[in-house]
């Protein structure tokens, strides 16, 4: 039993080294420029080991995105994590928005640079599928946030949940995050402050939106 646990622990550590190496390489060299040999060398494993765990380069990139989104490789969905349960208990809608933006910033710091790699390779059919899948997952997550606001009666009455989700998806998109933090030189904290203010202005009734 101890031997099996030891093997499992080593396997987890190997996968994490591969994912860490692949994340850095994809961001630095792009999708086409990163090879399994590069990843194997950086992770100090053999190429067959990378193939064994992930099969294809697109499969490896998908796992890199999943781990970057969640912050770890535990098999727990993003919306089933403790921080989300805590977020749902926020009574003040402005606090709920701020916490959602803060959580999104933490995720975008990790995942937006990798999604930029997917975006740049969208002529590839597998990358197109990856981009579509990730877009759908982001919409589901932001839609869940909007649903919480709607069920608590804090959403602006002239907005449908779909419209509110559209606004949230747009303001918290990885594209806009990268434009402001990379091209414009904003800090993540500046992005959080601006995005929270914009969300509150657009989603809350005027009487509930905090003063700018």
Automatic annotation (TrEMBL):
Note whether Transcription occurs among the keywords. yes
Q: InterPro entries this protein is in? A: Homeodomain-like_sf (IPR009057), HTH-type_TetR-like_transc_reg (IPR050109), HTH_TetR (IPR001647)
Q: Which domain of life is it from?
A: Bacteria
Keywords from the named record: DNA-binding, Transcription, Transcription regulation
User: Which Pfam families does the UniProt entry name for this protein?
Assistant: TetR_N
Molecular function, one GO term? DNA-binding transcription factor activity
Which residues fall under the DNA-binding region feature?
35-54
Where's the HTH tetR-type domain? Answer: 12-72
Q: Which PANTHER family match?
A: HTH-TYPE TRANSCRIPTIONAL REGULATOR BETI (PTHR30055:SF234), HTH-TYPE TRANSCRIPTIONAL REGULATOR RUTR (PTHR30055)
Annotated protein name in UniProt: TetR family transcriptional regulator
Q: Which organism is it from?
A: Sphaerisporangium melleum
Phylogenetic placement of the source organism: Bacteria, Bacillati, Actinomycetota, Actinomycetes, Streptosporangiales
């Amino acid at each position: 039993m101890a031997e099996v646990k030891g093997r499992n622990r080593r396997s987890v550590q190997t996968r994490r080294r591969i994912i860490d190496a692949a994340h850095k390489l994809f961001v630095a060299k792009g999708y086409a420029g990163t090879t399994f040999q590069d990843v194997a060398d950086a992770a100090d494993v053999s190429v067959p080991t990378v193939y064994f765990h992930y099969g294809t380069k697109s499969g490896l990139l998908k796992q890199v995105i999943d781990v970057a989104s969640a912050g770890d490789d535990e098999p727990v969905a993003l919306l089933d994590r403790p921080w989300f349960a805590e977020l749902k208990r926020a009574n003040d809608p402005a606090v709920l928005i701020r916490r959602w933006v803060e959580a999104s910033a933490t995720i975008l710091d990790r995942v937006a640079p990798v999604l930029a790699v997917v975006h740049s390779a969208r002529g590839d059919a597998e990358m197109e599928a990856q981009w579509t899948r990730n877009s759908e997952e982001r919409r589901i997550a932001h839609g869940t946030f909007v649903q919480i606001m709607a069920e608590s009666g804090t959403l602006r009455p002239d907005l449908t949940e779909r419209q509110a989700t559209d606004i949230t998806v747009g303001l918290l998109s990885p594209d806009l995050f990268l434009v402001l933090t990379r091209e414009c030189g904003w800090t993540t904290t500046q992005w959080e402050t601006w995005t929270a203010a914009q969300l509150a202005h657009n989603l809350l009734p005027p009487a509930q939106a905090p003063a700018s």
